[in-house]
Amino acid sequence: MKTALKHGHLFSRLAEDQLDRVARHAVVINLKEGETLFEQGDSADRFYMVVSGQIKLFRLSPAGNEKIIEIITPGSTFAEALMFLERPHYPVGAQALTAAEVISVDARDFTDMLRGSVDTCFLLLGDMSQRMRGLLREIDELSLHSATCRVAAYLVQQAQERGEQFDLPVAKQVLAARLSVKPETLSRIIKNLTERGIISIRNSRVSILDPRSLEETADVCALPQDSLQSTFLYPCPPAKQKE
Description:
This protein is α+β, with helices and mostly antiparallel strands. The protein folds into two domains: 2-139, Jelly Rolls (Sandwich), CATH 2.60.120; 145-233, Winged helix-like DNA-binding domain superfamily/Winged helix DNA-binding domain (Arc Repressor Mutant, subunit A, Orthogonal Bundle), CATH 1.10.10. 38% of the residues lie in helices and 21% in strands. The protein contains eight helices and eleven strands. The strands form three sheets. It has a four-stranded antiparallel beta sheet. Strands 2-7-4-5 form a four-stranded antiparallel beta sheet. Strands 9-11-10 form a three-stranded antiparallel beta sheet. Strand 4 and strand 5 (66-72) form a beta hairpin. Helix 5 packs across helix 8. The N and C termini lie far apart (53 Å).
């Protein structure tokens, strides 16, 4: 388990004795596709790191509509910020998108350990700040940008990470929920981009035919250091400033 923990950003700088302590109080959980890890509103006394597979975090509206908040991939942790709350509850549900293995960490014991490790505290603060920045950017994009922009920006992100030919890492229905568009809207956008000769798609295989036009459609930020590298947390970058 220690080897797996070292691949997580949050645990990568822990000393050996700290890793030993985390591992003693941790549990490995194997999930089948579609299996629930925890439900929205459950008591939150543990946080998690994904070892393999994908976990979706989602909220349900009173009408039963699902909004995917984040898709967690291997090496990433989630629900760690809740350890600082008194009697916390998970604000989202967590479900395996694919068969997955996660490590469940005792939040209270980890909090006790933080009291003696300033470096780990700063690492955790950095992780939470990055996540908050991503959520703020997503709010901005949902308010200011069209569905076409969000889909195009997501494809730009994937092309940056995987090359100009890649397989969608999640099902189209899941992708639509993550980008806050209806499945039929996503289909129309993909069809439009295809008809314009910007992309081609066969099943889940995407080919970027005109990268420049795709970036223009996405209105990608001109600052190269502020790329779309940061996963699903903010799939659409801020708009370019008008001159």
